[in-house]
């Protein structure tokens, strides 16, 4: 199968590219390297360094003729979306529409869209949230990812492609940017590496569902199987909640050090609780394999050997 991955030089996308290639697929990557990295390239993939806002996009994709498009290119910083909502609309909505129209013109058979299971639901009851829960995002980022989902479904009706929307919980793992606003595990790892005290926004009692990038990739691979091609939305999470304070204890143990955190004011648009129900995806044979303790431990082990 010929697969086009947008954002394929980034954190999640680069892992996905590696696995698609390992499974014998032909992979083309579209990435403008605004947040991606050249060192994450897989030499067996073809890379086109271009923005989704490029007017040549439709011609480029029509020439490629991919069977499937996996759309991971995005602006994923909630705080930045609050400060620059118009930029977030351009990146997460307008560019998605451009891609969908181009994919439709190229007669792509299927779209996989990487969405968010955190920001899209908004403030929820303190329980695992299913896909049926009403989406009430409280940040521009969440609103725009929800809008992009609607465009994925709209253009499926217009162009006839199949689609899968995957709503990720809080993803962590190798290659995550430690210098941004999101990705608390990579950020704290970098702070500990520099001998700094971890900075926590709020009281540290915010609960999140942390999932390793390998489990995210496994979920994506599932939807290459013909039996799992139905048009639907799936949460991709562990269904296990961990507070930031609990996460710090896990990370301190893995790092074999104890550093008191610095607590500062909570960020606008931040959620107090977000845990995803994964029963729907489990029915297709997927389940998370890497526990948070083991995943964090592996990250610190990898850091020590590099």
From TrEMBL:
Q: Please report the stretch or stretches of sequence annotated as the NAD-dependent epimerase/dehydratase domain.
A: 3-237
Name its species.
Paenibacillus tianmuensis
Record-linked InterPro entries: Epimerase_deHydtase, NAD(P)-bd_dom_sf
User: Which Pfam families does the UniProt entry name for this protein?
Assistant: Epimerase
Highest taxon of source: Bacteria
Similarity comment text for this entry: Belongs to the NAD(P)-dependent epimerase/dehydratase family.
Q: What is the protein's given name?
A: UDP-glucose 4-epimerase
């Amino acid at each position: 199968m010929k697969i086009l991955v947008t954002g394929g030089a980034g954190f999640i996308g680069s892992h996905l590219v590696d696995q698609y290639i390992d499974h014998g697929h032909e992979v083309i990557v579209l990435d403008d390297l605004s947040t991606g990295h050249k060192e994450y390239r897989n030499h067996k993939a073809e890379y086109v360094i271009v923005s989704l806002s490029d007017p040549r996009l439709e011609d480029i994709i029509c020439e490629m003729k991919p069977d499937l498009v996996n759309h991971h290119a995005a602006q994923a910083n909630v705080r930045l979306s609050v400060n620059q909502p118009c930029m977030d609309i351009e990146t997460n909505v307008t560019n998605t529409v451009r891609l969908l129209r181009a994919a439709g013109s190229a007669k792509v058979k299927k779209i996989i869209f990487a969405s968010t299971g955190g920001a899209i639901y908004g403030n929820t009851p303190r329980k695992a949230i299913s896909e049926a829960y009403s989406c009430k995002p409280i940040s521009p980022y969440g609103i725009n990812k929800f809008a992009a989902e609607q465009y994925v479904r709209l253009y499926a009706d217009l162009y006839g492609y199949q689609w899968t929307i995957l709503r990720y919980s809080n993803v962590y793992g190798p290659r995550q940017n430690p210098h941004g606003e999101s990705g608390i595990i990579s950020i704290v790892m970098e702070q500990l590496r520099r001998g700094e005290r971890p900075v926590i926004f709020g009281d540290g009692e915010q609960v999140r569902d942390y999932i390793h990038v390998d489990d995210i990739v496994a979920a994506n691979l599932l939807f290459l199987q013909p039996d799992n091609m139905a048009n639907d939305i799936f949460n991709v999470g562990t269904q296990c909640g961990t507070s930031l304070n609990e996460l710090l204890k896990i990370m301190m143990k893995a790092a074999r050090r104890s550093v008191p955190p610095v607590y500062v004011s909570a960020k606008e648009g931040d959620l107090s609780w977000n845990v995803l129900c994964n029963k729907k995806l489990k029915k297709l044979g997927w389940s998370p394999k890497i526990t948070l303790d083991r995943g964090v431990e592996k990250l610190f082990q990898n850091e020590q050997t590099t």
